[in-house]
Design a protein that fits this description.
Number of helices: 10
Largest sheet: 4 strands, mixed
Number of strands: 7
Order of helices and strands: HEHEHEEHHHHHHHEEE
Strand order of the largest sheet: 1-2-3-4
Strand content: 5-15%
Structural class: alpha/beta
Helix content: 55-70%
Length: about 325
């Protein structure tokens, strides 16, 4: 009797677990199920039509699923559960493929049925993700990334070569990379916050350098490495180069334009005769090293210490 109760209890637990797990799997509403709402209506139709045409031509079933988040679950386990629940592919041929994208987790997977593993092995699926989909996802172009990934899968299944498609994708990226931000893998919120911090600091010193007589040219050369390196964190290498060139050109031009203004001449005379001048709330003073600055509203200054490079950094 006790054994029967134990078996019944175990069966009940397994049933509840199966129901709970199954509730996380969305309904199969079509070839493209965009629950994360990252595709435009036109793009959903375009991708669905291409998948339908491929299925009519080859019998292979390909489906695309987007969900906001995996809620802590592994992408591999989730994709396999959805694939088996949706039963993609023909019975006996197992010729189905599922593309899963979870934008909030920045995770995606191409799940391949047994019957297509020889045509689309793990290495090729990984290349499609890394070289075709990921570069566009990093810029927020989910429409282009998913469409290109689906197109690449179809091309491979229909006998095309992935290297040709990768070269085409690279050519398109270079052709449109004029002002494209392709820096570290950061969200738009992180870019805004880091940008406000970085450009706020070097922008302040740049403004002081432009406005201050004497010490201004010292700051011009002093800030060059900062303008060369700091913007890379937010904007990527290409845009950081544009920022540096802009700084190198506009700083001297602004300095020369201000040179003959009345307040600049007065500040220069005060610096020469009094040893200090007030510019925009900051007190600029001359010294043996060619100049220094301090805030007019605070008497705080450094005590002359230095850092040995200790501290900590983090990334994700």
């Amino acid at each position: 009797m006790k054994t029967s109760l134990r078996l019944a209890l175990i069966a009940a637990i397994l049933l509840v677990a199966a129901i709970s797990f199954g509730s996380d799997i969305p309904f199969l509403t079509g070839r493209v199920t965009d629950n994360a709402e990252i595709l435009s209506a036109d793009m959903r139709r375009t991708i669905a039509e291409s998948l339908k045409a491929h299925e009519q031509k080859t019998g292979n079933q390909i489906a695309v699923l987007t969900i906001p988040s995996l809620e802590g679950e592994g992408i591999e386990e989730y994709a396999a559960a959805v694939f088996n629940s949706w039963k993609l592919g023909q019975k006996g041929k197992d010729n189905g493929i599922l593309v899963v994208i979870a934008p909030n987790d920045r995770r995606m997977r191409i799940e391949v049925g047994y019957g297509l593993e020889g045509t689309l092995p793990d290495g090729l699926a990984g290349s499609i993700i890394r070289n075709i989909m990921t570069p566009q996802f990093k810029t927020g172009n989910y429409n282009g990334g998913i469409q290109s990934g689906v197109k690449a899968i179809i091309e491979v299944l229909e006998g095309g070569k992935l290297t040709d498609m990768e070269n085409d994708a690279a050519d398109k990226e270079r052709a449109s990379s004029g002002l494209q931000i392709s820096g570290p893998d950061l969200s738009i919120t992180e870019r805004i916050l880091l940008g406000a911090f970085i450009f706020g600091i070097i922008g302040l010193f740049t403004a002081i350098g432009i406005l201050a007589p004497g010490a201004g040219w010292f700051l011009y050369f002093f800030l060059i490495p900062f303008w060369a390196m700091f913007p890379i964190v937010v904007l990527g290498t290409t845009c950081a180069l544009y920022c540096l060139v802009t700084y190198l050109i506009l700083f001297p031009i602004a300095k020369l334009l201000l040179k003959n203004t009345d307040w600049y001449i007065k500040a220069k005379n005060d610096l020469f005769t009094k040893g200090h001048a007030s510019i925009g709330g900051f007190m600029v003073s001359s010294g043996g090293s060619g100049g220094s600055w301090s805030s007019g509203s605070s008497g705080f200054s450094g005590g002359g210490g230095s850092s040995g490079g200790g501290g900590a950094s983090g990334s994700w």
